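Q: What does the predicted 3D structure of Aminotransferase-like plant mobile domain-containing protein look like?
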Amino acid sequence: MQVEPKRDVIEALLSFWNPTNNVFRFSNFEMTPTLEEIAGFTGFGVRLHHQRLIAPRGISINKFFQHLNICKVKEQSLDKGWISLQFLYDRYEKEDGFKKFGRTLNNKGNFETWKEHRRFAFMVAFLGTMVFPRRGGKINILLTGVVNVLIEKKNYTIVPMILADIYRALTVCQKGKRFFEGCNILLQLWIVEHLYRSLTVARFIQDRSDYITSHAKRVEKYRCPEGVNAWVEHFRLLTEDKITWNYPWFPWVEVIHMSSVRPFLLLMGIRGVQPYVPLRVLRQLGRRQVLPITEDMKDFVSEVGPEVPLPEGLAQRIWDGCLVMGIGTMVKERHTGETHPEYSNWLEQQPQLQVRPERSVKEPIDHEAEMKIKIELAMRDYLAENQELRANLELARAVLTQQQVEFEEERAKAIQRETSLRGQVDLATIRGTQVAELAVSRQQQLRTCD
């Protein structure tokens, strides 16, 4: 959750994805995320090859509410197989949920029980938003069954499911779908650590270290390209001698032994089944790259649906069969980058990648860079407009000040004129009074003379 997502590197990788064998095809080599690498990142890989596969079986609405300890309520999205993050957030994020939804939660009013149920809800929400995301924040209700298995049954692994959905997301996005329904953060960590040339030697020992939190520190000196176009050009120029084939922290010493009959596994994901062919990328596992058996794996890809049942039994038998045949011996010597003498010729003879749809590969748009440019332009326009508004405001204030000065001057003149007029009126009144008095006096004098 602390890793900054780089969507441009994911989009650039799509141009190099080969869905026939679920590998990235670069100039003179192939790579793919492996079970061992994903398990190492997540910390879920101790005795990975001795664990059983989790099957994303169908979950009824009643079972969904039972797993989450919620009384049955009307929620239309459940009929479509998903629930919103807000649905879980309202009930289990804060204590308000315990108080507000207490009557619809199966905790008998016990706060400690609610907190236990809250952990389960958080696991479902985390997997549904970070590991198995769907557009619009829709969380697949099948994840409640997956979380229940992880809690109740300790000998099961979720790593194949994570990898299967990453493979599927790469394929469907290569065909033009815009939303990556896989764990893009793990895919990003995987490729960046292979691109960074570390001087540290791989240890090949098992431990329980957290390799996600420490990722940023390990690759802090690596300068990532910026934008889709820059990443695509970087991948086009990439050669096998520029790759860190084994992570410095790579802890795995075992690789499933593959028979000549079935040189692959079937990985069951949330949305379907994907083939896994580690023989094509043995250098990532500290082994010498041999010539892999060439087979079109697309025939083993299937989408789970009402009419397409999950081949759970077949996938589990292949997985278990590899365990019966035995696990590879401990890595005693590193074979970093070593290949069979004919490997280069073999790779050149493999079919070239199909061009992605024109709308998503011709003149690739750097969405992240484009967005940054738009933000910068918007900010520039905002600052210019803000500066213009400030200038207009200052001008308006100056005009207002000038008008106030002129108003005060006119007011003073008006007061002065008013005072003068009042003086004249008073003088005229006095004179009028005097004239009247004089007239009265003259009339009296005339009467006296008569």
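A (community wiki): The structure tokens above were generated from the sequence. The first strand starts at residue 17 and ends at 18. Confidence is low (pLDDT under 50) at residues 324-332, 358-367.
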